[in-house]
C-alpha cells in the first residue's frame, strides 16, 4: 500500500497586540474602589467613614461599584489597540519606507495581505537599514538610544542622500546627555545642510512639565560642558519652555495672587485646593508665606482633568511669557553666549582697562567694526507662516509703503488677570510686537495677498546682498574682577566670528555706557557727543545720562502700549527750558512726565549737548 501522509494543518494567524490594556485591566481589577463604606461618629463627635464588614468578618462590596468596574473593563477591552509610536510608524508608512535602527531582536510586521508575521533581526540588520537610509532607498529613519550608538545619520557630503534631515524628538527621556547624543547623530561636520529639530508633544498641556524638565537639563548640560546654555538645547527650547526658571517661579507667585483674588477664569481658589490637595491660605483666609514650590505645583496639576490642566497652563504660560518679554525689553534677560556671524571684523582700538597685580593678566575694551550681511526673510517662508493661520493679516503701511505679516503672538496678562492680545509683525528685515487693540490706530492697513507678495519681493530685492557696518564695544580678557563695573543694563555675552575664522569672546558694552564704565575703572576716554548716535542708541533701548548741569536721564518708556523717549529725573525748574527746546509734558497718575518727540530727538539732544552743557 502506498503510504500517504495527511497534510499539515494551516498555521494559526498571528493576532498580537502590544498595547497596555493588560496592565490597565489588572490595575482596575485590583484598585477600583468597590468596598462599601459606613459612617460613624468618633470620640470627638466628628462624622467619619470606614470600610464595612459583615458578621462573619468578610469585607462588604458595593454591587453598583462592581458593576461599574466590569462595565469599564468591558469597554476598554472592546477599544481598538493603541500601538507604540515605533509600530505605528512602521504600519503607517510600511517597512519598505522606514529604516529601523533599534535594539529589537524581533518585531511584528504586516505583509501585503495585512497579516502579521514575526520577523527576526540581527545586529547586521541595523547596518543594512542605516545604509538604506544614507543611500536614499528608505526616506524615513527611526533610531533609539540602542540604535544610535556609533552611527551618523547627518547629510554627509560623502553620502548619496544629502537631503535636509528633519529630526523629530519623540521621547527625550530624563537624561540630557543621551538627548544630546541623539541630536548629534544628525548634526555633524562635513554635511550638506544642518537638520531641523522638531520636539513632538501632544495637545495635553501637562506634558509641558516633562518638556520643561528636559529643557532645563539640556540648558544646564550646555552651560557645564560648553560654557553656553543654548548649545545644550541646540536652540530648540525657548526661555518660556523652562518651567523651573526664575521667570516661571515669579510667574507662579503672580498666579497665586490672581487665584486668591478670584481673577482667574480656569478655576477658583476653593476648587483648586480641593483638586490639588494644596493648602494655599492660612486660618484667616490669607495667602500663606510658604506657598508650594513650582515643582510640587506642576506635579499636582498632572493629576487633574485634561481640560482643567489646559486652562490652568494657558494662564500660567501667559504669565511666564509676560515675565520673559518684560526682561527682554528691559535688557536684563540673560541668554548666555550669543554667536554673531560677520563678514569681516576689524579692531579699531584696544584699551587695557585693568592689569591684575598678581598674575599680570589684562582686561581689554575692544572697539570693533563689524560688517554683516542683512538677514532677510524670503517670501516663500513668510507665506508658509501665513498658511498656518486661519485668517492671516497681510498688511501695508500707508506712510512708508512697507509690508508686514501679522500673526497672533503669545498673549500677556495684566495685574487684573485680563489677557492682552498681541500680534507679531513679521517684516523682511525684522519682527516687532504690537498690541491687538492698537493695530487699528496705526498706519497699517489690509492688502491683498498678490499685492503683498509683489511688495515683499520688491523690498527683498532692494535689501538683498547689502552689507551693514556698525561699531561695537567688547570687554574681553580677565572679566571676573571687573564684572561689577560693567553696565547691568546689558548682560549679553557675544562670540563674534568672521569669515576668516577669527573670533572674539567677551561682554558686550553699549555705546552709551562706555564712558561710565571707563570712569569706574579709572580710564579716561573722550566723551561721545554725537546726537544722532545718542538718539539711535536711546531708541534701541539704551539710556543716556545728560551732562552737568542737567543731570537727568533720557531713556525709552512705554506709555499706553507705545514707545516714547522720556526725560527722567529733571528738576521742576528746568521743565520750561525743556519745553522751549521742543519737549512736551503729560500728567500721568498725578505726576508730570517729560517726553521728547521722536522726530525732533536729534535736534533736542544737540541742544542738550551744546557748548553750555559740556561736561567739566
From TrEMBL:
Highest taxon, organism lineage: Bacteria
InterPro entries attached to this UniProt entry: SBNO_Helicase_C_dom (IPR026937), SNO (IPR026741)
Keyword annotations from UniProtKB, A to Z: Methyltransferase, Transferase
Membrane-spanning parts: none
GO molecular function: methyltransferase activity
Any single GO BP term: regulation of DNA-templated transcription
Pfam families xref list: Helicase_C_4
Domain Strawberry notch helicase C intervals: 85-339
Annotated protein name in UniProt: Methylase
Organism of this sequence: Novosphingobium olei
Source lineage: Bacteria, Pseudomonadati, Pseudomonadota, Alphaproteobacteria, Sphingomonadales
Amino acid at each position: 500500500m502506498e503510504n500517504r501522509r495527511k497534510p499539515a494543518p494551516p498555521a494559526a494567524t498571528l493576532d498580537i497586540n502590544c498595547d497596555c490594556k493588560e496592565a490597565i485591566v489588572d490595575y482596575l481589577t485590583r484598585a477600583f474602589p468597590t468596598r462599601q463604606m459606613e459612617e460613624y461618629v468618633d470620640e470627638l463627635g466628628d462624622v467619619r467613614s470606614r470600610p464595612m464588614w459583615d458578621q462573619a468578618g468578610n469585607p462588604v462590596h458595593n454591587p453598583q461599584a462592581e458593576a461599574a468596574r466590569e462595565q469599564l473593563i468591558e469597554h476598554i477591552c472592546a477599544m481598538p489597540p493603541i500601538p507604540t509610536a515605533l509600530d505605528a510608524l512602521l504600519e503607517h508608512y510600511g517597512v519598505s519606507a522606514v529604516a529601523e535602527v533599534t535594539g529589537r531582536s524581533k518585531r511584528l510586521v504586516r505583509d501585503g495581505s495585512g497579516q502579521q508575521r514575526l520577523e527576526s533581526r540581527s545586529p547586521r540588520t541595523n547596518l543594512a537599514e542605516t545604509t538604506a537610509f544614507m543611500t536614499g532607498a528608505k526616506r524615513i529613519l527611526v533610531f533609539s538610544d540602542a540604535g544610535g550608538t556609533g552611527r551618523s545619520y547627518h547629510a554627509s557630503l560623502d553620502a548619496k542622500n544629502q537631503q535636509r534631515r528633519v529630526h523629530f524628538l519623540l521621547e527625550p527621556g530624563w537624561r540630557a546627555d543621551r538627548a544630546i547624543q541623539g541630536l548629534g547623530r544628525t548634526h555633524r561636520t562635513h554635511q550638506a545642510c544642518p537638520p531641523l529639530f522638531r520636539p513632538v508633544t501632544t495637545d495635553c498641556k501637562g506634558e509641558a512639565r516633562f518638556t520643561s524638565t528636559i529643557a532645563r537639563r539640556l540648558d544646564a548640560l550646555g552651560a557645564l560642558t560648553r560654557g553656553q546654555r543654548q548649545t545644550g538645547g541646540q536652540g530648540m527650547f525657548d526661555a518660556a519652555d523652562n518651567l523651573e526658571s526664575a521667570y516661571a517661579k515669579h510667574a507662579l507667585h503672580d498666579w497665586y495672587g490672581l487665584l486668591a483674588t478670584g481673577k482667574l477664569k480656569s478655576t477658583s481658589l476653593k476648587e483648586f485646593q480641593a483638586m490639588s490637595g494644596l493648602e494655599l491660605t492660612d486660618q484667616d483666609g490669607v495667602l500663606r508665606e510658604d506657598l508650594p514650590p513650582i515643582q510640587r505645583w506642576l506635579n499636582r496639576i498632572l493629576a487633574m482633568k485634561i481640560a482643567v490642566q489646559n486652562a490652568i497652563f494657558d494662564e500660567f504660560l501667559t504669565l511666564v511669557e509676560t515675565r520673559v518679554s518684560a526682561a527682554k525689553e528691559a535688557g536684563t534677560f540673560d541668554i548666555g553666549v550669543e554667536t554673531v556671524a560677520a563678514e569681516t571684523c576689524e579692531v579699531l582700538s584696544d584699551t587695557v582697562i585693568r592689569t591684575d597685580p598678581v598674575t599680570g593678566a589684562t582686561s581689554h575694551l575692544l572697539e570693533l567694526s563689524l560688517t554683516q550681511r542683512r538677514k532677510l526673510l524670503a517670501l516663500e517662508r513668510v507665506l508658509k507662516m501665513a498658511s498656518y493661520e486661519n485668517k492671516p493679516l497681510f498688511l501695508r503701511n500707508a506712510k512708508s509703503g512697507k509690508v508686514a505679516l501679522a500673526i497672533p503672538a503669545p498673549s500677556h496678562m495684566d495685574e487684573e488677570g485680563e489677557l492682552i492680545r498681541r500680534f507679531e509683525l513679521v517684516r523682511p528685515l525684522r519682527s516687532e510686537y504690537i498690541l491687538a487693540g492698537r493695530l487699528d490706530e496705526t498706519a497699517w492697513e489690509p492688502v491683498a495677498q498678490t499685492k503683498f507678495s509683489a511688495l515683499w519681493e520688491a523690498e527683498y530685492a532692494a535689501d538683498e546682498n547689502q552689507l551693514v557696518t556698525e561699531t561695537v564695544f567688547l570687554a574681553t580678557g580677565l572679566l571676573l574682577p571687573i564684572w561689577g563695573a560693567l553696565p547691568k543694563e546689558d548682560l549679553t555675552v557675544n562670540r563674534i566670528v568672521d569669515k576668516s575664522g577669527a573670533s572674539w569672546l567677551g561682554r558686550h558694552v553699549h555705546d552709551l555706557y562706555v564712558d561710565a564704565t571707563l570712569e569706574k575703572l579709572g580710564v579716561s576716554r573722550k566723551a561721545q557727543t554725537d546726537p544722532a548716535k545718542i538718539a539711535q542708541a536711546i531708541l534701541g533701548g539704551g539710556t543716556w545720562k545728560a551732562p552737568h548741569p542737567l543731570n537727568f536721564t533720557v531713556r525709552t518708556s512705554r506709555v499706553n502700549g507705545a514707545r516714547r523717549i522720556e526725560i527722567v529725573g529733571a528738576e521742576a525748574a528746568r521743565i520750561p527750558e525743556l519745553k522751549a527746546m521742543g519737549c512736551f509734558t503729560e500728567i500721568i497718575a498725578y505726576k508730570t512726565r517729560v517726553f521728547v518727540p521722536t522726530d525732533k530727538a536729534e535736534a533736542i539732544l544737540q541742544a542738550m549737548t551744546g557748548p553750555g552743557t559740556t561736561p567739566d
